[in-house]
Amino acid sequence: MNPHLAPVEVPDPEALGHVQRLCDLAAPYTTGADVDELFAAAMAQANVWHARRSPFFASLLGDPPEEAAPSVGERVRAPLVPAAFFKRHEVLSVPRDDVFLHLTSSGTSGQKSQMFFDEWTIRAAQRMVARVFDHYGWITPDQPVNYLLYSYEPAPSLKLGTSFTDNYLCDFAPARHTTHALRHTGAGHEFDVHGCIAALHRYAEEDLPVRILGFPAFLHFTLERMSAMGVPPLRLPKGSLVVLGGGWKGHADRQLGKDEFYAEVTELLGVPGERIRDTFGSVEHCVPYVECAEHRLHVPVWSRAAVRDTATLRPLPYGERGFLHLVSPYITSVPANSVVMGDLASLHPGEECACPLSTDWFTVHGRAGTSRNRSCAVAAAELLKGMP
């Protein structure tokens, strides 16, 4: 068995048996009444788990139930916790000695989400990522690749969730060579655009697939610089893959539409559209949302999504824009099993996508309003200041 798909066990099999069975589902986009029943049972167990260990979450359960969102499940109790809460409070549902990993959501300044993971939680989330990659055929242990990572080069004190995720994704295909776009200087990180261009030239001449991972803004600025320098289009080897995440926060004025951006990548690097995928995720909610071949962010079997009115937090019907609400019982370390994100999104039924998947999917339309909070992408975008 691939080690990334190996079994992991919940902290208390008796109290969290339904959570275990839900997270053990191997097919990431399974649907059906039995799956819905299992999800509802797993959420009930997760609620009890956190209420017994977190006075904060227990008080939420004591409040009148929130209006249920049909897309989450009428029988699913999912108290609303804003993602911003974790930027101001440290709340744990496990002893601090059981914390296996501590990650933050932002750069070296500004408010940070402090997320703490026991071993079950982070391993379960990693296994979800592996199952989605396996679903799309992107786990290739016998095929070495070259990596260009548009994320932070590791440093001893670096605890950013994006850096952790991108380096984990490198485990799905053995690395012949790796280039980081955000180089560690000893006093921080700097965007090495010329190093990225040199790596792309070198990789294009080798007979190995290339995997480009990380923030889309940095890839766009690399391609933009190549064009300004008169560099002719490259053709990365067959099997190359672009998996992006983090959005364009901090550079919305220069953001390309998705179709235009993907066309730019295809034109200048030769990667076909179906091998270019965006993702959505956060340190507060580590369930992976990965675009299908039609570029829709489908909801996997281990979670549910809803959209809530920005004024009333009432659930909205398909197609309307509001706060993105993500629900999953996988997390046992922190009461973040029902998080309202700061992102504006719209939810759509599976049949509105032409791909074979039948789960709901959502589109992210940007951040709601203005905020002093700085995500990983915002912090990284500041490194682009001053570029032409």
From TrEMBL:
Domain of life: Bacteria
Residue intervals of the Acyl-protein synthetase LuxE domain: 78-382
InterPro entries reported for this sequence: ANL_N_sf, LuxE
Name of the protein in its database record: Acyl-protein synthase
